[in-house]
Amino acid sequence: MDTPYPIQKSDAEWRAELEPMAYEVARHAATERAFTGAFWDHWENGDYHCVGCGSTLFHSDTKFDAGCGWPSYSAAAAAEIVERVVDRSHGMVRVEVRCRQCGSHLGHVFPDGPEPTGERFCINSAALKFDAK
Prior knowledge:
Layout: H1 11-17, H2 20-28, E1 46-50, E2 56-59, E3 63-64, E4 72-73, E5 82-87, E6 94-99, E7 105-110, E8 120-123, E9 128-132
Antiparallel strand pairs: 1-2, 1-9, 3-4, 4-8, 5-6, 6-7, 7-8
């Protein structure tokens, strides 16, 4: 991750602080298997935070069932909290989503979500922590 982020930690610090799957997703852009994460079918009212730094990323009122097996949101909590990066890995062109505070990989955003945004933020549960309201 090349962008300088306000929150900087060494790889050893990230590895020590994060659970193994969260570390692989957040720091190495891994993807959890569909329908296996803690939040793909989670509908409690509250906020979803970055597993790396705690920044509020998504609110439960923007979560919807996209049928894809990952938590899906129609909007970020604030446009400036997520960074969008062109991802050309795996023979595809997608838009990766990262936390703008710590650079953690969250997932991808696609142009097939519901109105009013038309976007679907497809996010790994392992990249999130939940705070119930």
